[in-house]
């Protein structure tokens, strides 16, 4: 019989509930480095939406850093009661919005990485809803983390992982110490974990680091890329399809608009040359064929002097590779310390003290954001940089004119 937590007074108990137990031997065999990895190996736990790679659950409202979530039976984050030695754990102060029932709702969770996993005696998982016993936060079930007590001895272990194809290493250091005092009536147990992992960039793998997947759909693969047997033969309608082009149309080369309609009328000497009839123009890398492909330019190229050119809008945007400088996983440093002190008094009562310390530092490189929507950013007519872009004859084409930044990705 496994007793998990305490019963709400007045609750009606009609039978036993199913409980799964992972003991220390099971946890040690898994060889995991944190609570989130441990939950990945628990079949009752659903998708962990509190993770650094999750982007589909609310965009900027997604949790960051060293986070892991309890999500029993995949019923949603926040519906699993999490206990430590039978007592409730405090939720992480971070939250995110998750798509539940067709709408985004705030969700919170206990951080599964709080506990030094090699100090666990066992993990008890109540696999059925138990809100009548434990409260509304136990709709999906209950997870009780039971720490080792009365431990005596000293254990020091180091584990290091390396990868064949990535320039990264993972290091885990675990320490356990315990000592009995007062003739065995007092025990002090200390458990500490330290975890350090290096970042892996998306560019370290040819497929990860390229958002344009069209080249992977054909059997004519780039040099050095192994054929995995999933390429499409010539003639297949999906081979090279733009449906696999996951590049962003919001790039480091922007699109700009003249603010006032009077500035792109027929009286403007350069109208229909470097801007279209609406006073709109784009920026491309210097040397791109679109720099001078309009007959109205007469082959002339407007060189900005910064490795780019200006050309009429409507040439098609320069697309951005979202995974070019993005991390596949973050650089992470984490430490956990848990101290358990218990003492048996002369009258038979037992006192206990629990002290926990957790800290982490996570650094993840994301692609630069696209900041504009329907509200465009206005560049004033006296902006210094507008006067620096001149034609060969010294004419500052955009000096004294207000511009809208219509499309630009900051980096």
Level-2 CATH architecture of the largest domain: Beta Complex
CATH superfamily of the largest domain: TonB-dependent receptor, plug domain
Indicate the mean pLDDT.
84
Radius of gyration equals 30 Å
CATH class placement of the largest domain = Mainly Beta
What's the number of domains?
2
3D shape: elongated
Q: Taking strands numbered 1, 2, ... along the chain, how are they ordered across the largest sheet?
A: 14-15-13-12-20-19
Could you tell me the CATH topology label of the largest domain.
Ferric Hydroxamate Uptake Protein, Chain A, domain 1
What percentage of amino acids are in beta strands? 25-35%
**Series of secondary-structure elements, N-terminal to C-terminal:** EHHEEEEEHEEEEEHEEEEEEEEE
Residue share in helix: under 10%
- The helix count comes to 4
What is the straight-line distance between the termini? Answer: 59 Å
Largest sheet: 6 strands, antiparallel
Uncertain regions: pLDDT < 50 for 5+ in a row?
A: none
- The number of distinct β-strands equals 20
């Amino acid at each position: 019989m496994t007793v998990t937590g305490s019963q709400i007074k007045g609750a009606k108990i009609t039978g036993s509930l199913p409980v799964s137990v992972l003991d220390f031997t099971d946890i040690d065999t898994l060889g995991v480095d944190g609570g989130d990895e441990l939950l990945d190996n628990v079949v009752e736990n659903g998708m962990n939406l509190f993770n650094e790679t999750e982007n589909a659950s609310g965009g900027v409202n997604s949790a960051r850093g060293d986070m892991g979530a309890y999500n029993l039976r995949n019923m949603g984050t926040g519906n699993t009661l999490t206990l430590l030695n039978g007592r409730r754990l405090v939720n992480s102060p971070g939250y995110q919005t998750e798509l539940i029932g067709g709408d985004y709702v705030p969700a919170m969770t206990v951080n599964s990485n709080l506990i030094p996993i090699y100090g666990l005696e066992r993990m008890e998982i109540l696999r059925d809803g138990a809100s009548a016993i434990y409260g509304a936060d136990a709709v999906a079930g209950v997870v009780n983390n039971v720490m080792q007590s009365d431990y005596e001895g000293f254990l020091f272990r180091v584990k290091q992982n390396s990868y064949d194809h990535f320039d990264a290493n993972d290091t885990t250091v675990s320490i356990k110490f315990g000592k009995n005092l007062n003739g065995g009536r007092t025990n002090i147990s200390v458990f500490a974990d330290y975890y350090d992992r290096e970042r892996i960039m998306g560019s370290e793998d040819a497929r990860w680091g390229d958002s344009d997947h069209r080249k992977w759909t054909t059997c004519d693969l780039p040099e050095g890329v192994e054929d995995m047997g999933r390429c499409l033969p010539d003639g297949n309608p999906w081979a090279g399809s733009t449906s696999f082009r996951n590049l962003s149309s919001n790039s480091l080369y922007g699109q700009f608009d003249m603010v006032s309609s009077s500035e792109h009328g027929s009286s403007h000497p350069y109208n229909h040359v470097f801007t279209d009839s609406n006073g709109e123009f784009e920026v491309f890398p210097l040397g791109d064929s679109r720099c001078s492909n309009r007959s109205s330019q007469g082959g002339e190229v407007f060189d900005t002097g910064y490795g780019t050119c200006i050309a009429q809008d409507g040439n098609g945007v320069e697309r951005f590779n979202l995974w070019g400088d993005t991390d596949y996983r973050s650089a992470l440093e984490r430490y956990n310390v848990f101290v358990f002190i218990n003492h048996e008094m002369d009258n038979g009562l037992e006192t206990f003290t629990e002290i926990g310390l957790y800290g982490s530092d996570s650094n993840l490189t994301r692609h630069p954001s696209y900041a504009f929507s329907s509200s465009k950013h206005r560049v004033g007519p006296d902006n210094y940089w507008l006067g620096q872009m001149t034609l060969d004859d010294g004419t500052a084409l955009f000096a004294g004119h207000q511009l809208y930044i219509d499309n630009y990705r900051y980096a």
